[in-house]
Amino acid sequence: MNQTKNLSLAPTSQSKSDLGISESPIFIFGCPRSGTSLLSRIIGCHPRIAIPFESHLYNTFYPWLKYYGNLQLIQNRERLVDDILTTEVMRDWSPPPNREHTLEAIYRFDFHGIVDGIMGAWTNAQGKQRWGEKTPAHIFYWREIFNAFPNLQVLHIVRDGRDVALSWKGSRFGPKHIYPLAQKWREYLETVEELRTALNDDSFLEVRYEELLLEPEGIVRKICTFLKEEFAPEMLEFHKVGASYPTDQKNQKNLSRPPLTSNAGKWRSEMTERELRIFEAVAGGTLERYGYERQWHQPQISGLEVMQFRFLEHPPRKILAMLKNTKGHIDGIRRLKIYCRLRLGI
User: Fold this and answer.
1) For residue 327, is pLDDT > 60?
2) Which member of 137, 170, 177, 261 has the lowest number of beta carbons within 10 Å of its beta carbon?
3) Nearest-angstrom CA–CA distance, 20 and 96
4) Are 232 and 45 in contact (CB under 8 A)?
5) In which residue ranges is the amino acid composition biased (Polar residues) (predicted)?
6) Rounded to an integer, what distance in angstroms lies between the CA atom of residue 206 and that of residue 320?
């Protein structure tokens, strides 16, 4: 009898209508270091919209779903929620998600319902009515997300890939050589283009990072129109909000100031000729497709150079960056413990 009760499809918790949460979530996509944090901070200052720190729900837990069994069973849902809430990124949310409120907010008993419950409960706790999510890696799960949230609206922010590469190279995560950085930037944009073909104009808006820096109010008003929300002047005061946003130190410093026009075109003075040649040889076509002017007409890299990049130049830089990334170590250990426990059936 207990199993029959647990398998019931009837919601026994609060529904979205009970919480007053919108049925149209917002997903912010963009290659890392393209301005996704800036955009999420701005939109998160809207009086109706709540956007927490990154969640990494899909890229971490979606591939592990088979280990959790039937999510119609309450004990399996609770186990998944408990594992999610122990990850380092979720601990970084301010305030952290409340377990009891999260479980009460799950009205749909699958993985996407758990995502919705986590986001909805947190949004409700902020006194807001609509949630947004910003995890760059979730773009690679866009089909699953779109199927689960057909009323979603997507904001994609694009930035000159050469500036992205410079910023990403200096961060605590990600590739540390211009060759894989160019490949990653191109891959993100190619994946976004696949998503774009599946959505109509009411569901997809692309924002250019450089324009956001130059005309913040005009771009933010455009975003509000797209989201069908009233423009709120406090969105432009995002840098005055004291809420923690645990990104790396340099990014945190930038987020504590108004948009910096000096953050555009930094590659012109900071990227070496060799780096520029490599980047444009890999992703020059993508630069042109997005309206960014190339510096090299027909840059080339040889197969021998590629071997050099992949096996000699990049590995030591990546290893050194990983050794310095103590926060990444903590997160990695937490995730590894969860995975090992799941595989062992503990």
Assistant:
1) yes
2) 261
3) 20
4) yes
5) 247-264
6) 35
DSSP letter for 156, please: E
Residue 19 has pLDDT above 70, yes or no: no
Cα of 253 vs its chain's centroid, Å: 19
Angle at 174 between CA 168 and CA 179, to 5 degrees: 75
Q: What is the mean pLDDT of the chain?
A: 91
* Block residue for tokens 């866009």: 142
For residue 185, which of 305, 321, 59, 32 has the smallest C-alpha distance? 32
CA-to-CA distance for 294 and 285, rounded, in angstroms?
A: 9
Could you state, in order of their start, the residue ranges of all structural domains in the chain?
23-342
At 168-212, the pLDDT tens digits run 999 988 999 999 999 999 999 999 999 999 999 999 999 999 999
What pLDDT sits at residue 3? 33
Indicate the class that CATH gives domain 23-342: alpha beta
The residue among 264, 212, 262 whose CA lies nearest residue 238 is 212
Paired strand residues for 28 = 134, 155
Q: pTM of the prediction? A: 0.91
Structure tokens at 119: 């986001």
> DSSP readout, 87-138?
SHHHHTSSSPPPHHHHHHH--S-SHHHHHHHHHHHHHHHTT-SEEEEE-GGG
